[in-house]
């Protein structure tokens, strides 16, 4: 994530420690894997091909589940007074897709929006204007020739939770009858709440809303049906902000996701953690088309763009990045002169919040570099896709291990991967490497990227007849599948808590995405 307000988080981030530890262990080769992950030693988890849903391949003894009856985990199809299935003229297309939205006390959502002035404390700008247009922000008044009219907004990257909630209010399969719901949505604005207290507040204050929320939820009748395993949250900040592992005041964030009730729920956010109950969904970009035709028009335009730069990078050349790949990237970009365009978002004259400026550069570039920043991910990934600019990734945690519901599993089909495992050994010359790419490969990659555009936008309200699935639709599908797989486990008599909220230490290491290490990965997991 690009915004400087997160810059504190990564000094203490567990992923880095885990990554270093893992690489260290591989090096030693003799490390005792079974001791390292003792709690998982008997468990084999695999990723489902289509959805990345964690499937437990080990059958296990049920425990704690005696109260869950087979019927209670099955949302029943609608019946008439006699209990007969409503069949005949129409089949209910919402069966299996009904979502019940908890009517939370306003302090968990609406109050945060209404007090948007206070949110300014946690961000470096006034958040109020960004809450316009159901969280899309103000419409861009002067799209120049870069954007298309009426579809682009000044969207703040942290407002996913507000956008998602507003889109959910128009979801076609809402129900007020929780007994037929396949999922329970908890519209807590966790990120906005957190942004009030991330800096200079003690852990008691930071955890206060989270504790209140889980208490409220666990007292509702909906809780007991599956003990929260059919509940999900959506957060507009990275999941690490809610994963404080101790009560040491110097640790970052809240412990929302380590509360016992919260462990039973799933959370969707702009960047997931390495725990299995966190899922990543795209950052909100500034493009919110209201008709499929606007998307088709935009895609056509991106196909026809004249791309004068071989590659570009939009980001902040900050001194603390000298020891990261960013420093090298910036140096190489400058050395490549007219082949590379550097968009300086921090000190330069360019305002990177205005999509006109970012899109102008990305639309003119063949490749867009996406190094990790303060955290693994950046909104820029999705800006690059929108512009038909082929993303170049340096770490599997930036996209491949994140957006499993939205981006293709075969990452070589839409991106270039230049992993940086050890900065001192990374000797790639970007200009030469990218220049060597054959023209037909570039055309195929770009076409794949352009095809992804509808999947990564949060569309404005659309009429039913339209056919494209947007980022919201895919997120809803993903979470419904996830919850359904938990129901299947319960039906089969398995304990759904197995694997549900486990930490997966390997999720964001290079091993999964590097064939030379894949064998070690497999061996370790089979021990
Ligand atoms: C649970 O319900 C499903 C679907 O109605 C049925 O197929 C299955 O046999 C039931 N299992 C038990 C243990 O009753
Ligand atoms: C877009 O809007 C501008 C003014 O806001 C107008 O001058 C221009 O003609 C519009 N373009 C199209 C294609 O409608
Ligand atoms: C649920 O109940 C509220 C308040 O009674 C009502 O406004 C809303 O339309 C209902 N929603 C559905 C999907 O029935
Ligand atoms: C935490 O901060 C709040 C207000 O900022 C204060 O009232 C409270 O006593 C503090 N708690 C602890 C344990 O320091
Ligand atoms: C809290 O963390 C800091 C910095 O990591 C450390 O110096 C300190 O000893 C820790 N305090 C406790 C009580 O563990
Ligand atoms: C979490 O779910 C398990 C069953 O999977 C249940 O035993 C436990 O009580 C739940 N925790 C809470 C806090 O509800
Ligand atoms: C390619 O980049 C290197 C630095 O990484 C630079 O020395 C070289 O001049 C560049 N070549 C061209 C053709 O721009
Ligand atoms: C992945 O995509 C590449 C490039 O399009 C293709 O050559 C390769 O066969 C694909 N791999 C799989 C497993 O589909």
From TrEMBL:
Main location: Golgi
Keyword line: Glycosyltransferase, Golgi apparatus, Membrane, Signal-anchor, Transferase, Transmembrane, Transmembrane helix
Membrane topology, from the record: Single-pass type II membrane protein
Keyword Transferase (UniProt): yes
Keyword Cell membrane among UniProt keywords: no
Compartment(s) of residence: Golgi apparatus membrane
InterPro entries: Exostosin, Exostosin_GT47
Pfam families assigned to the protein according to its UniProt record, in alphabetical order: Exostosin_GT47
Segments passing through the bilayer: 12-31
Annotated ranges, domain Exostosin GT47: 94-427
GO cellular component annotations of the record: Golgi membrane
Superkingdom of this protein's organism: Eukaryota
GO molecular function: glycosyltransferase activity
Homology family: Belongs to the glycosyltransferase 47 family.
Entry-linked PANTHER family: EXOSTOSIN HEPARAN SULFATE GLYCOSYLTRANSFERASE -RELATED, XYLOGLUCAN GALACTOSYLTRANSFERASE GT14-RELATED
UniProt protein name: Exostosin GT47 domain-containing protein
Lineage: Eukaryota, Viridiplantae, Streptophyta, Embryophyta, Tracheophyta
């Amino acid at each position: 994530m690009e915004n400087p307000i997160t810059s504190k988080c990564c000094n203490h981030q567990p992923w880095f420690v885990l990554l270093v530890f893992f690489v260290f262990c591989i090096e030693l080769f003799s490390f005792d894997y079974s001791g390292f992950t003792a709690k998982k030693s008997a468990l084999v988890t695999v990723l489902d091909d289509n959805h990345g849903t964690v499937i437990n391949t080990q059958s296990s003894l049920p425990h704690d589940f005696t109260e869950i009856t087979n019927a209670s985990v099955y949302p029943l199809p609608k019946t008439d007074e006699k209990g007969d299935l409503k069949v005949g003229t129409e089949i209910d297309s919402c069966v299996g897709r009904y979502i019940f939205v908890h009517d939370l006390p306003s302090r968990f959502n609406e109050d945060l929006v209404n007090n948007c002035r206070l949110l300014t404390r946690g961000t470096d700008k006034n958040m109020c204007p960004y809450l316009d247009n159901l969280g899309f922000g103000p419409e861009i008044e002067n799209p120049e020739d870069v954007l298309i009219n009426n579809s682009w907004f000044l969207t703040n990257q942290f407002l996913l939770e507000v956008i998602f909630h507003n889109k959910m209010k128009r979801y076609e399969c809402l129900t007020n009858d929780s007994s037929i719901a396949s999922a329970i949505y908890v519209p807590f604005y966790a990120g906005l709440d957190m942004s009030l207290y991330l800096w200079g507040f003690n852990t008691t204050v930071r955890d206060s809303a989270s504790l209140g929320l889980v208490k409220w939820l666990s007292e509702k009748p909906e809780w007991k049906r599956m003990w929260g395993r059919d509940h999900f949250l959506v957060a507009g900040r990275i999941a690490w902000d809610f994963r404080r592992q101790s009560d040491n005041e110097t640790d970052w964030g809240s412990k929302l996701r380590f509360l016992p009730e919260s462990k039973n729920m799933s959370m969707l956010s702009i960047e997931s953690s390495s725990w299995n109950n966190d899922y990543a969904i795209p950052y909100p970009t500034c493009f919110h088309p209201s008709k499929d035709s606007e998307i088709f028009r935009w895609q056509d335009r991106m196909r026809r763009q004249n791309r004068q730069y071989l590659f570009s990078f939009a980001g902040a050349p900050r001194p603390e990045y000298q020891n990261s790949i960013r420093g090298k990237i910036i140096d190489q970009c400058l050395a490549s002169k007219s082949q590379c365009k550097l968009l300086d978002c921090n000190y330069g004259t360019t305002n990177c919040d205005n999509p006109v400026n970012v899109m102008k550069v990305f639309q003119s570039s063949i490749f867009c570099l996406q190094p990790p920043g303060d955290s693994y991910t950046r909104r820029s990934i999705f800006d690059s896709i929108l512009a038909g600019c082929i993303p170049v990734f340096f770490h599997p945690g930036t996209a491949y291990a994140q957006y499993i519901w939205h981006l293709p599993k075969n990452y070589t089909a839409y991106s270039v991967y230049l992993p940086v495992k050890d900065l001192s050994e990374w000797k790639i010359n970007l200009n030469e490497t990218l220049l060597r790419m054959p023209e037909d490969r570039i055309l195929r990659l770009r076409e794949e990227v352009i095809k992804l555009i509808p999947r990564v936008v949060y569309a404005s309200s659309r009429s039913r007849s339209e056919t494209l699935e947007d980022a919201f639709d895919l997120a809803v599908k993903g979470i419904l599948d996830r919850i359904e797989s938990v129901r299947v486990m319960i039906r089969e008599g398995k304990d759904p808590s197995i694997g549900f909220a486990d930490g997966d230490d390997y999720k964001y290491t290079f091993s999964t995405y590097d064939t030379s290490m894949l064998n070690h990965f497999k061996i370790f997991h089979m021990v």
